[in-house]
Amino acid sequence: MSGYVVACYAVTIGSLSAYSIWAMARLRAVNKRGPRQ
Amino acid sequence: MKSVRVLGALAVVTLTGTVVLGLGLPATYEQRTYSRMLALHPPLAWTAYVAFGVTAAASILYLWPRTRRARFDAVAAASAELGVLFTGLTLITGSLWGRPTWGVWWTWDARLTTTALMFVIYLGYLAQRGLADTAAARAKRSAMIAVMAVIVVPINHMSVEWWRTLHQGRSLASLKPGSELDGDFIAAMLLGFLAMTLTYVWLLVMRTKVIEAEADLEEDALADAIAARRQEALAT
């Protein structure tokens, strides 16, 4: 397997995973804060 | 929350399928194993187009007085953020494909240049959203910018037809029956399109909720600050 192919898959899946984890953490923080008073 | 979980699960399953199918693609005569990147690069670019299209549509809905809702502004902002992410990944994966096949990481080809332009325009859109302003003024200004900015999307898509480029033709056109693309590649690319679109929708739902909640918080903080200043004024 070429290093370019491995890098392409690693960058794509790694970035999408990192962004998803961050987005889920932000959503959890917002939900914990509760609805507007 | 349940729909967010279902969307997330679907995105993870289809993305895993794309990786398995993509990495399992056979080596080709011209591109050897580099053609395996086909399962990711065109779907990433397609999703960026969808994201910027949604930003423009939500912005039009915000600008139209009858449909004006703060939610449309949040959708536009979240979608632009995702569009920038997907465009960035399109540029990186394209560069990783270009180096072994074209011999260069980057060239000022019409498709590459308009993609870079699209990336910079929407980065600017996100940056201007951070300017100090009232929520309504920011939403209106952002919506007007988004409506103008979306013109770069069809130019980018058609650039390979309008100018002589190093980049190959439109990938979406190669999905038609009778094209030169082999069935395995079409299947991997189609699954890639589905996976990236589902991932985008999942992330869009989450980011919209967060942006809306942050806007509420900002509004509450402003209301509190005004109330505090009034109290001070009354006390003196």
Structural write-up:
The complex is a heterodimer of chains A (37) and B (236). Chain A has 37 residues and is an all-alpha fold. Helices cover 84% and strands 0% of the residues of chain A. Chain A contains one helix and no strands. Chain A starts with a helix and ends with a helix. Chain B has 236 residues and is mainly α. Chain B is built from seven helices and no strands. The model of chain B has no long low-confidence stretch (mean pLDDT 89). The chains are: A mainly alpha (37), B mainly alpha (236). The A-B interface holds A 1-2, 4-5, 7-9, 11-13, 15-16, 19-20, 23-24, 26-27, 30-31, 33, 36-37 and B 1, 4, 8, 15, 19, 22-23, 32-34, 36-37, 40-41, 44, 85, 88-89, 92-93, 96-97, 99-100, 199, 202-203, 206-207, 209-210, 213-214, 216-217, 220.
Largest interface: A-B, 23 and 36 residues
Whole-number radius of gyration of chain A?
16 Å
Helix content of chain A: over 70%
Order of helices and strands of chain A: H
Strands of chain B, count: 0
Helix tally of chain A? 1
Largest sheet of chain B: none
How big a fraction of the residues of chain B is strand? under 5%
**In this structure, how is the largest beta sheet of chain A organized?**
none
Beta-strand percentage of chain A? under 5%
Catalogue the unreliable spans of chain B.
Answer: none
Q: Rg of chain B, please?
A: 21 Å
User: Which structural class best describes the helix and strand composition of chain A?
Assistant: mainly alpha
Average pLDDT score of chain A: 88
Name the shape of chain A in a single word.
Answer: rod-shaped
